[in-house]
Amino acid sequence: MSGPNGDPHVALGPAGRDGGDEDGDGFGEEAINSMLDQISSCLDHLEEKNDHLHACLKELLESNRQTRLEFQQQSEQHSMGADMQGPQPPV
Fold first, then answer.
1. Which residues share a beta bridge with 8?
2. First vs last Cα of the chain: how many Å apart?
3. Looking at the DSSP assignment, which residues form a beta bridge with residue 2?
4. CA–CA separation, 50 vs 70, rounded Å?
5. Distance CA 32, CA 8 (A)
């Protein structure tokens, strides 16, 4: 599907052409369709990776929110406990 550098691999016919070139531009309809299929496949793969990354980031965000709330609650409880005990003498 891809060459060694991730470039699309297009099978070309004799003299570097796919044999279906009528315009002389080097790419026939079959080769163009193959490249478009590969591009579409790559875009689908990127979309899947993006969706997965988005889900992971949402999960991380929610986890961070929960941790922050827990930390705030502990901090409030700690400060309320210190207020009830009164000022502590210096050590």
1. 2
2. 72
3. 8
4. 30
5. 11
pLDDT in tens, 25-37: 667 999 999 999 9
CB 3 within 8 A of CB 9: yes
CA atoms within 13 A on the CB side of 49: 6
pTM of the model: 0.54
- Distance CA(18)–CA(32), nearest Å, equals 10
Residues 6+ apart with CB under 8 A from 39: 8
With 60 as the cut, is the pLDDT of residue 2 above it? no
Query: Do residues 19 and 13 touch, judged by C-beta distance below 8 A?
Result: yes
Give the burial string for 31-44 (b: 16+ CB within 10 Å, else e): beebeeebeeeeee
Give me the helices (H) in 1-91, please: 29-85
**SS3 for 38?**
helix
